[in-house]
Design a protein that fits this description.
- There is one protein chain.
- The protein is mainly beta.
- Helices cover about 5% and strands about 45% of the residues.
- It is built from 2 helices and 32 strands.
- The strands form 5 sheets. Strands 1, 2, 3, 4, 6, 7, 8, 9, 10, 12, 13 and 14 form a 12-stranded mixed beta sheet that branches.
- Strand 18 and strand 19 form a beta hairpin.
- The longest helix is centred in the first third of the chain and has 9 residues.
- It is globular.
- It starts with a strand and ends in a 29-residue tail after the last strand.
């Protein structure tokens, strides 16, 4: 179902999740039209926002696009997919950033989405991140943020509506001259404009009924409030007026996006230090897992839990800042699989050129250590801690086996990408060469658990990669390089990795009634993370 927008601009795991950027979102009224063959409705919304920038309260436009199911059953969880938030900041915002010495900006967005069914409501947070963007010489600044969002389940029959609310945008600023002072960061808070079409309505998903979704915005002015006591998942449950709970008034359930269960320990590779890899006082180990999109194949490859051995660096003072205490930490890491610096082999099946089934067995191999740069900023006003982490990984994709339409093709033993997977580095002058860049942000308020990515507690890291051309593929005179390059290589491949809680070898924390486990008795990571799309 295609929903056309009106007018205006657009756009992290409980223990650690990438935080988003405070900013503005503009969404327009949605008018459902024809349904797609896949049973999904494609939503495109444009809404006006008002954002608090250094130069004042300024209008901004946010466009939100996503795919929702045409309908769902009561209790059935689903996840909006292909979520993109495009934020258009006015020229005045560009002048504000330029005045702070910035030449480029990377954005992280956090959009509050109200989910309502009948008289009950809940709130989901849609987070996204953008690639670095150079500030334009004139005109507005457009930031395109992509990310994964929580799953949602309607508790009963009735339309489930999704409406955009407050938007926060964190802007990480980059200087044109690497020798210049760090321009720092800026958080922009945006509110939906009062005249936003449909009060920010994004989509309507019928639940438990065969009736078609209504055309246009719902007649109600917005989702009804619910003041009932929270149920076992912490959401309001019932009207809160003393009457027995009615099923139709149970709040929609917002779920963390964990599409699967943690792997059994017998199914993951060992992750421990040994005589060949003795630990030090700063040694950590952890499992990582995730998904990597292959844009040309219109699919994703699941990366199974892999062991990473980490040597954590010591924090050193960062650049002076009147509002923050800043500390930088440089750590290094290596994959560890059967004494090799690589992931375990993983299989992926795609439809090449939309019709030929292709099954490949692959590994990611290091060509140098993984570099982990973390900058911790402690805000002096309230001691909130914000940590930005960049993981730079030189990883070559090695194809072990290939099968096309059920027929094995001999790729030989040296079939791999010509260079490492590559990303646009936010600091190319100091980090030249081919490597993948993954980014995560962690945030911690005093007295509350950390959210986002932190090296010690883990969380989600994401990035976008270009897959290079292939070389060395084929045997007996048959050259398969061009086939693989044509069907796989290219830019725009989103990668999301989830790191689990680390085990600190020198000071292990074992599970107990008082503590969550961080290490097993033989000093392996206690937590096996779950991949998130």
């Amino acid at each position: 179902m295609k929903a056309k927008p009106a007018a205006a601009p657009r756009p992290s795991r409980a223990r650690a999740r990438t935080t988003s950027i405070a900013a503005f979102v503009v969404l327009a009224a949605l008018v459902p039209t024809t349904a797609t063959a896949s049973g999904t409705q494609e939503v495109e919304a444009e809404l006006p926002y008002v954002c608090a920038l250094p130069s004042g309260q300024l209008p901004a436009t946010v466009r939100v696009s996503a795919e929702f199911p045409e309908r769902a059953e009561a209790g059935e969880a689903f996840t909006p997919s292909d979520v993109t938030t495009t934020v258009e900041l006015p020229a005045e915002a560009v002048a504000d950033l330029t005045a702070q010495g910035a030449a480029e900006v990377r954005a992280a967005t956090r959009l509050a989405v109200g989910v309502a069914q009948n008289a009950a409501t809940a709130t989901a947070t849609w987070r996204g991140g953008s690639e670095p963007v150079a500030l334009p010489g004139s005109g507005p600044l457009t930031l395109v943020a992509r990310g994964d969002v929580p799953s949602v389940a309607g508790r009963s029959d009735g339309d489930l509506t999704f409406s955009a609310g407050a938007l926060a945008i964190d802007l990480a600023l980059g200087a044109a001259d690497p020798a210049a002072a760090d321009p720092g960061s800026l958080t922009v808070d945006c509110a939906l404009a009062e005249d936003a079409p449909g009060q920010g309505l994004l989509a309507t998903v019928p639940v438990g009924t065969d009736e078609q979704a209504p055309s246009g915005s719902p007649s109600s002015s917005g989702p009804a409030e619910s003041s009932g006591a929270p149920d076992d998942d912490g959401q309001p449950d019932g009207p809160g007026d003393g009457r027995p709970e009615r099923q139709s008034e149970r709040s929609p359930k917002v779920l963390e996006n964990t599409p699967g269960a943690a792997a059994d320990r017998d199914d993951v590779p060992p992750c421990r230090y040994d005589e060949q890899h003795p630990p030090t006082d700063v040694s950590l180990n952890a499992y990582v897992t995730g998904y990597a999109n292959v844009k040309k194949m219109k699919g994703a490859a699941y990366l199974p839990p892999s062991c990473v051995l980490i040597e954590q660096g010591l924090p050193v003072p960062g650049p002076p800042d009147p509002e923050y205490l800043i500390f930088d930490t440089l750590s290094y890491a290596n994959f560890h699989y059967r004494e090799r610096k690589q992931t375990p082999p993983f299989e992926a099946t795609f439809l090449s050129f939309d019709f030929a089934p292709v099954k490949a067995t692959m590994v990611l191999e290091q060509t140098a250590p993984l570099r982990i740069d973390s900058r911790m900023k402690i805000r002096l006003s309230d001691f909130t801690t914000i940590t930005d982490t960049y993981v730079r990984a030189p990883l070559v994709l090695h194809v072990l086996d290939l099968e096309v339409n059920g027929t094995p093709l001999d790729v030989g033993s040296e079939c791999r990408t010509e260079t490492s997977l590559t990303s646009e580095d936010p600091d190319p002058a100091n980090f030249p060469g081919d490597h993948l860049v993954l980014y995560g942000r962690g945030e911690q308020l005093i007295g509350l658990p950390a959210t986002g990515y932190l090296l010690l507690s883990g969380g989600a890291l994401s990035g976008e990669a270009t897959i290079p051309a292939f070389t060395g593929c084929g045997s007996d005179g048959e050259d398969l390089d061009r086939l693989l390059t044509a069907s796989v290589s290219g830019p725009g491949n989103h990668i999301k990795q989830v790191q689990g809680q680390t085990c600190a070898i020198a000071a292990p924390v074992f599970p107990s009634p008082e503590n969550e486990g961080q290490c097993t008795e033989d000093l392996q990571p206690y937590e096996i993370p779950v991949a998130e799309r």
